[in-house]
Amino acid sequence: MSSHAPFPGLGPEHELLRDGLRRFIAEQVLPHAEAWESAGFVPREVLREMGALGFLGIRYPERHGGSQLDTIATVVLAEELGRSTVGGFAITVLVHTDMASPHLFHAGTPEQQARYLPDLIAGRRIAAVAMTEADAGSDLAGMRTTARRRADGSWVLNGSKMFITNGVHGDVVFVAAKTGGGGAARHREISMFIVEKGTPGFRVARPLRKQGWLSSDTAELIFEDCVLPADALLGEEHRGFYALVKNLQNERIVLAAQAMGEAARAIELALDWTRNRQAFGQALWSNAAIRQRLAWRATQVEALRAFVYTTAWRDARGEQVVKEVSMLKAMAGTVVNEVIHDCLQFHGGMGYMRESAIERMARDARVQSIGGGATEVMLEEVAKRMG
Question: What is the dihedral of CA 332, 166, 108, 328, to 10 degrees?
Fold first, then answer.
């Protein structure tokens, strides 16, 4: 078993999950990481294998093929994926499990769930969520993509989405679009839709080239007179904004846990390097400045870990943690970048080489203070709740 602090709610089932994930990552991910980075995506058979092992349906009911666990299990998943050192692989999985498919689980009709959820949990289909637009960013209510209902009940979708993870290779995309008349209450005009790959009028405009997360396929999506059946509406009409905001809480806990796992693993790599690397006749670890800096960074990571698990425990109990989740996301994005910056520095020239895991981790970490809610947006959310 892995040894971790006994945080509230963390039980044997979570440690079994952790150990299974570590074995899978060691055997099925790390040997192929560089090939996936070069290819720009994670092979589908890897995701199907994760589905077969039960890693893609942790929170979902057993009747759909899930494990029916809790928020803490999601945190374990995200932390271990972060520890893999392959951020693109981690986010490919987490978008599928915790950012896209929850929309179907929370808002889908029984028929919609029966049609899609078993395949998503098994990894036979991969999901994406399309809410971000180039001109709107974190301003969800400012999106311009529209869906117009026709006389026969079908919908016509027009617009574009940007920075969509799993956008190239995903099979099912949950798309947010304006269905209102352009009134003052912009947030009350958004609805969610299920769009399958291959639907006429839906296409991938282009894969996007990124600084990091290279093994994650990211795309711009285009919808041009894309006709959807009446039952493609996901949840209530005009309630899509609230669905997006609700799931952003889970998304931000997950991203914070991923960042925490990345930071913890970076410190382990730096410890190993500084204890074995000789410079000026002694190990780098003999330098008090390096020892103390790593000790401080380890302290920050332990504080972040406690915050992550406590917030997940409270969320699992049904408590209101909107302010805490915003704090957590802001803290995690900052800590992971600071920690990995120092860990790369202590690797010296080797830390700047593409063959080094810490170099990949440094590129991957940069987006953690942007994606899922920029740090500045998160701090505004906290400030609004301090009065």
Answer: 0
**Domain identity same for 189 and 205:** yes
Residues 115, 156, single domain; the answer is no
Q: Name the pLDDT band for 2 (thresholds 50, 70, 90).
A: very low
Q: Name residues whose C-beta falls within 8 Å of residue 168's C-beta, 6 or more positions apart in sequence.
A: 41, 204, 207, 217, 218, 219
Q: Which of 57-66, 169-178, 179-188 has the lowest mean pLDDT?
A: 179-188
How large a percentage of the chain has pLDDT more than 70?
96
Closest CA to 276 of 347, 349, 366, 206: 347
The verdict on 377 and 246 lying in the same domain is: yes
Q: Can you tell me the distance from the alpha carbon of 88 to that of 82, in angstroms, rounded to the nearest whole number?
A: 10
How many residues comprise the chain?
Answer: 387
Q: What is the pLDDT of residues 279-312, one digit of tens each?
A: 889 999 999 999 999 999 999 999 999 999 999 9
Which residues does the annotation mark as catalytic?
Answer: 251
Closest CA to 17 of 64, 63, 62, 50: 50
Calpha distance 165→174 (Å, rounded): 12
Please report, in angstroms and rounded to a whole number, the separation of the first and last CA atoms in the chain.
Answer: 44
User: Is residue 58 located within the same domain as residue 98?
Assistant: yes
Cα distances from 349 to residues 290, 294, 352, 354, 362, in angstroms, run 16, 18, 5, 11, 14
Q: Which of 126, 147, 173 is the last residue of a domain?
A: 126
Last residue of one domain, picked from the residues 209, 238, 267? 238
Q: Is the dihedral of CA 130, 133, 136, 141 positive or negative?
A: negative
Domain containing residue 54:
12-126
Compute the distance between CA of residue 79 and CA of residue 98 in angstroms, rounded to an integer.
13
Query: What type of residue sits at position 341?
Result: H
| 247 and 380 share one domain | yes
**42-99 pLDDT per residue, tens:** 999 999 999 999 999 999 999 999 999 999 999 999 999 999 999 999 999 999 999 9
**pTM tops 0.85, yes or no:** yes
The CATH number of residue 340's host domain is 1.20.140.10
